[in-house]
Design a protein that fits this description.
Layout (H helix, E strand, L loop, with lengths): L4 E5 L4 H11 L6 E5 L5 E5 L7 E5 L6 H17 L4 E6 L18 H12 L3 E5 L14 E4 L2 H11 L4 E5 L5 H11 L2 E11 L2 E8 L6 E9 L3 H12 L5 E8 L3 H9 L4 E5 L4 H4 L5 E4 L2 H13 L11
Parallel strand pairs: 1-4, 4-5, 5-6, 6-7, 8-9, 8-11, 11-12, 12-13, 13-14
Antiparallel strand pairs: 2-3, 9-10
Helix pairs in contact: 1-9, 2-3
Length: 314
């Protein structure tokens, strides 16, 4: 593409935006973002963006209502300033857990968010490790879906020795666990999970032999660490050796940090896709940066190149 590429950051995770810009050797664009005393958000681009290829970086995390509204306002301002194309870079797609009607009279909010982004004027979305694959189909605009495996797999290849097992902590994580098992040349095990309440999980059954083996519990997100710890306790009971967890999006609250610190999980590996990953107060958390991966994807999208090569793991 001949248009000028420009990166702009919302206020959700400016540190990640700076890392992406540094990797790409580009400056972040100048934008004025304010919140009025009554809570309204205001955005103004303070440089010319007419005819530019814009990438707006904003994970929908921590305060999802505010940061989503801020992103929509940034998109509207860019559209009215005659930007040629607007790509929303959303490392963590908020509301993804509300992806279907599993009870009567509930919303499908993941689809609503997709509609809001499209109507606001987003031309393309770049995201990572969606909670449910079918969310890709909620968009009527192009969506590039990246995975954290190019970041996680090299780490575990260096960290682990001997037999390893990749563990799905519930039935919804089986495909993800199988993909990691194939990349690591490891076996796979599955834990049966029953949710007792919003913060309590019971892991009751295990399919697979984990005795004497290092285990890696794979999941896309964690906030209370209940699912991870429930699975880890069951693995220990069955004779597992060291237990690791790999979580794409770390949303741990204080209770989750405390429970993780006291658990039998040796390390939790996550990414800097959400701001909490840089602020978490737990010695067991290891944060790896996805900025290079996102930066390479942004550059390829701008040039009209395929992003498929970014799925390759070495």
């Amino acid at each position: 593409m001949k248009s000028t590429m420009k990166l702009f950051s919302g206020r959700a995770h400016p540190l990640l935006s700076e890392r992406i810009a540094k990797h790409m050797d580009l400056p972040l664009g100048k934008i004025k973002l304010e919140t009025f005393p009554d809570g309204e958000i205001f955005a103004q681009y303070t440089e010319n963006i007419r005819g530019c290829d814009l990438f707006l970086i904003q994970p929908i995390a921590i305060k999802p209502n505010e940061v989503l509204m801020e992103l929509l306002i940034m998109v509207d301002a860019a559209k009215r300033a005659s930007a040629e194309r607007i790509t929303a870079v959303i490392p963590y797609y908020g509301y993804a857990r509300q992806d279907r009607k599993d009870r009567p009279r509930v919303p499908i909010t993941a689809k609503l968010v997709a509609n809001l982004l499209t109507v606001a004027g987003v031309d393309r979305v770049l995201t990572m490790d969606l909670h449910a694959q079918q969310i890709q189909g909620y968009f009527d605009i192009p969506l590039d879906h990246l995975y954290c495996s190019p970041v996680f797999v090299p780490y575990f290849k260096k960290e682990l020795n001997g037999d390893s097992i990749v563990v799905a902590p519930d039935s919804g994580s089986v495909k993800m666990a199988q993909a990691y098992a194939d990349l690591l040349g490891a076996g796979i095990a599955v834990v049966s999970k029953r949710r007792i309440d919003a913060e309590s999980i019971e892991s009751s059954h295990l399919v697979g032999d984990v005795a004497g083996k290092n285990c890696i519990i794979i999941d896309d997100l964690s906030s209370t660490a209940g699912t991870l710890i429930g699975a880890a306790n069951l693995l220990k009971e069955k004779g597992a050796s060291d237990i690791y967890a790999a979580v794409s999006h770390c949303l741990l609250n204080e209770k989750g940090e405390r429970r993780l610190e006291e658990s039998c999980i040796k390390k939790l590996i996550t990414t800097d896709g959400v701001p909490l990953a840089d602020e978490v107060n737990c010695s067991k958390v290891v944060t790896l940066s996805i900025a290079p991966l996102l930066g390479d994807a942004i550059r390829r999208i701008h040039r009209g190149e395929s992003v498929s090569s970014l799925f390759e793991v070495y």
